[in-house]
Amino acid sequence: MLLISCPNCGPRDETEFHYGGQAHVAYPESPNDLTDREWAEYLFYRENTKGTFAERWVHSTGCRQWFNMLRDTVSYEIHSIYGMGQPRPNLSASAAAGTSAKSEPAQPGEFTQTGEFGQTEPGLAPGAPTTGAPISGSTAPTSSEGV
Amino acid sequence: MAETATPAETAHVNRVRGARRSPAEHLADAFTSGSVPGTVTLTEIPYQAMVGLRVDRTSDAGARVAAVTGGLPAACGEVTGTGSVNTLWLGPTEFMVVAPEEAHDSLGGSLVSDLTTALGTDAGQVVDLSANRTTFELSGSHARAVLEKTCALDLHPRVFKAGTAVSTELAHIPVMLWKTSDESYRIFPRASFADFLGRWLLDAMREYASPEVP
User: Residue A10 sits in a domain of what CATH number?
Assistant: First the structure.
């Protein structure tokens, strides 16, 4: 059972939530120009990440609000919870020696979960395709951390 | 301003009221016999007037609605209002107003029409949800022990204080749980779950009717 910290209601059992799939899947700018295959890929094709994954959740039994979560699909560790419409926090920013332009995103006060977990652990985002700065080859892509 | 029922309409409603059956009415005797006075008691408070509100509480419409309800809660757990009309927080822009049966427009009250008038044409909604849920009152020194058999939340008084209400799950069904005083809880299950939850609570209460095993 996951204990998920809803941005509005605080920590609640996983059974109060529903899963919303991969986060940050942008609606196509001009849907009419897409081929059937491209449209099908937008609708149905999702990442199958082993490692840190950005996903959407809704607190269906509580405040009925959606939020984003950065969760490790191997260890189930929740790295970050942030609001809808906010960019994915870059967990590896600190590991990349500050060369990445994307530092920790500024969050509104209500989403205080960001950065509470795993900020100091490098290499926790292997296999995540949208991670900005890839870590040098020292980290095995499928770390056994937390298994 | 608000349209309320005429005396003739109210008389008609009162005749029809006799035919009503509340969601847990068939359990009333079981609630009485299953209650242990002084330890834990369960009763149904039927037919309370409830109104679902959706409004941005920081907007002008929110201020007008708040003037009718006696304030709108700002965060999870908060309950506003004093006396008989209270507003429970359901979400950042969603609230539930709970009032006695007599506050309903069909019985001469003006709660729903007042709220509708206050919202006006602004964004939001006022929905009469009086038939959506029923109310159980669980009270007594062991009421918390009964709830803790199924509720995953921390119900200890240092966390769950009197005067707060949360929406959560009891026995795997979604309910609103409102702690009205130190030893008294109001539970709002949807009508179709009332039979199940009523029997579930009776079963959970049964052990407290027996002498405590030392």
Answer: 3.30.2270.10
CA distance A37 to A61: 36
Is the Cβ pair B169, A65 closer than 8 Å? no
Q: How many domains does chain B have?
A: 2
* Closest of A49, A52, A46 to residue A20, by C-alpha: A46
The ipTM, to two decimals, is 0.84
Looking at CA atoms only, how far is residue A96 from chain B in angstroms? 37
Residues of B in contact with A9 (CB under 8 A): 76, 166
Q: Helices B60-69 and B111-119: crossing angle, nearest 10°?
A: 160
Per residue in B161-206, pLDDT tens?
999 999 999 999 999 999 999 999 999 999 999 999 999 999 999 9
User: How confident is residue A42, by pLDDT bands cut at 50, 70 and 90?
Assistant: very high
Cα separation, B158 vs B213, in Å, equals 28
